[in-house]
Amino acid sequence: MLDSRYKHIFLLPALLALVAIIIFPLIYTVRLSLSGWDVNFPELDYIGWDNYARAITDGRFWDSMGTLYLMVLFCVVFEYLLGFALALMLWKDVRAGRFFRVLFIVPMCVTPVVMAVVWRTIFHETLGPLNDVLSWFGIPGVPWLSKSGPAFAAVVIIDVWQWTSFMFILLLAGLMSLPREPYEAAQIDGAGPIRTFVHVTFPLMAPITLGALIIRLIESSKLMETIYALTSGGPGSSTETTSYLLYIRGLREFQIGYTASLSIIYLAIMIIALTVFARSLSRLMIGRQGPVRV
Amino acid sequence: MSAHEPARERVRGIAMSGFKADLYRVLKYAALIAWAIFVVAPFLWALSTSFKSDPGVVGGATYIPFLEYEPTVDGWTALFRDTSSGGISMQGPYLSSLVVSLISTSIALFLGTLAAYGLSRFTFRAGPLGNNDITFFFISQRIMPPAVLAIPYFLLLRFTGLLDTHLGLILVYVAMLLPIVVWVMVDFFNTVPIELDEAALIDGCNPIQAFYRIILPNCAPGMVVATLLCIIFSWSDFFFALTLTFAKVQLLPPTIVILNSNKVPWWSLSASALVSVLPLVIIAFVLERYLARGTLAGVIRE
């Protein structure tokens, strides 16, 4: 065993930094949520639970939460299906495999908000290339950013473009680390490619899939930057996610106290939702026999 | 990491009849090429747009230079010109982004690898909490949405006079990057046998020397992955740069978004978008070498 007198030198600096920069501000947010701090009255008074009572009846806040969850659902499902399909295709030796792999991870590396600016020109109704290409196939132009349905779809398309690459690389790494014995057994049993996938690859990949899905759920629930650059939450508030609303209420309208209470509610709901979701997902995918040890 | 090579051979060994196999191969390459086109389309569009001038844009979408529009380099020279002469002078924001992301990456790497090594090698107890709980505490900070932290950061930095400074932003980025470093590095240190540390100690190193002379060089791939991820995240951050800096400090992402809302012509907007993501595209090429080799598989499994 190593000399443990040194151990705190290693851990403490990072731990203290994290507590100072994240935990302390979080506690401060709780305190702020009990105050009436706003533009006209910028002070830390105490008004009890008024902000929370107001938040409960704030329809726009709950709408933003609904929009967010619907968006996250669409994005993560598409990203998983496409990412897994691409990973399976590039798992075995493929001509120009490295070329495809490099290309496919570029989107997750580039700045989301800068790409959203580029995408905005692509979605432009009259001058953009997307409607132009659609017209080649006789499809009439779509008002991408001025109707709520297409605007929602545009946000999902951008997110899928960007983050399928992330699913792809995680699942590909997972596929490459699978043991070979189960495949030998499947081959001896004479299983075809589909049965091998259903009975060997998919169950073996369950823990990695679960990890990848949870990471994406966490990251996509922060969705805000694409919306800021692409639609500003519009048209109306049809693409307004909770993070975007918090930004508007807090740092545009400066309703500090009220926004703090919205933040706390949002964080609590998100942690509960993620925990419940992760639990049920792991039960669904891994079943009762417990996690597959690989 | 070549242990999985035989597994791939086995999979290929699973029989498919000739016609089915050919059909599968054709469909597979069609799908791969379709996705590749989807991935590069926005970059090609931006590249094409960056060489346009008014006639190439206002008449509807055009794609091919010389054939459909007369290319100019106006969009690219605008990057270096002042706003007074119709430019958007990107050098300042570029330098700021470079400084902020490199410094915050270095600090996060320094603190994060130390903590990850500690968590990998020593036993920590804090009441009922052990090493795994502390590691989870680090990683779980990724759950925190930036929008929740924006208000306390804004007030805190204003209170300490760090609002609209490089230092304030660096502090925030260190907190954002630390969980990533710890997440990647704990797993890497766990794969290095503890006998290596002990051998170094017998050779007369103290634990800190053993760490950076012996263990760290053995975890070079992990360090590369952690560094590149940190650079990607700090270079790409928009939210904190938007809310915590305004005038004195201007980073790339907010600058480009503001250009977008200021009706800057598409060609200089496209050129600025391309130069700002170029370093990240280069990083993608390096990152692929490490990521596709199962480097992250153990990390995800937790």
List the helices and strands and how they pair.
The complex is a heterodimer of chains A (294) and B (302).
Chain A (H helix, E strand, L loop, with lengths): L6 H26 L17 H7 L2 H33 L5 H13 L2 H11 L6 H8 L11 H29 L4 H8 L4 H28 L4 H6 L11 H11 L3 H31 L8
Helix pairs in contact in A: 1-12, 2-12, 3-7, 3-9, 4-7, 7-9, 9-12, 11-12
Chain B lengths: L4 H9 L4 H33 L3 H5 L15 H4 L13 H31 L9 H10 L5 H14 L6 H26 L2 H9 L4 H12 L1 H17 L2 H6 L7 H10 L4 H30 L1 H5 L1
Helix pairs in contact in B: 2-14, 5-8, 5-11, 6-8, 8-11, 9-10, 11-14, 13-14
What does this structure look like?
- The complex is a heterodimer of chains A (294) and B (302).
- Chain A is mostly helical.
- Chain A has a single domain (60-286), classed as MetI-like fold.
- Chain A has helices spanning 7-32, 50-56, 59-91, 97-109, 112-122, 129-136, 148-176, 181-188, 193-220, 225-230, 242-252, 256-286.
- In chain A, helix 4 (97-109) crosses helix 7.
- The model of chain A is unreliable at 288-294 (pLDDT under 50).
- Chain B is built from 15 helices and no strands.
- Chain B is globular, with a radius of gyration of 24 Å.
- With 302 residues, chain B is mainly α.
- In chain B, helix 6 crosses helix 8.
- Chain B has two domains: 17-72, no CATH class; 91-301, MetI-like fold (Orthogonal Bundle).
- Chain B has helices at 5-13, 18-50, 54-58, 74-77, 91-121, 131-140, 146-159, 166-191, 194-202, 207-218, 220-236, 239-244, 252-261, 266-295, 297-301.
- At the A-B interface, helix 1, helix 3, helix 4, helix 5 and helix 6 of A face helix 1, helix 2, helix 5, helix 6 and helix 7 of B.
In brief, what are we looking at here?
The complex is a heterodimer of chains A (294) and B (302). With 294 residues, chain A is mainly α.
Task: Please name the defining characteristics of this protein.
heterodimer, A: 294 residues, mainly alpha, MetI-like fold, 12 helices, 72% helix, 0% strand, globular, disordered C terminus, B: 302 residues, 2 domains, 73% helix, disordered N terminus
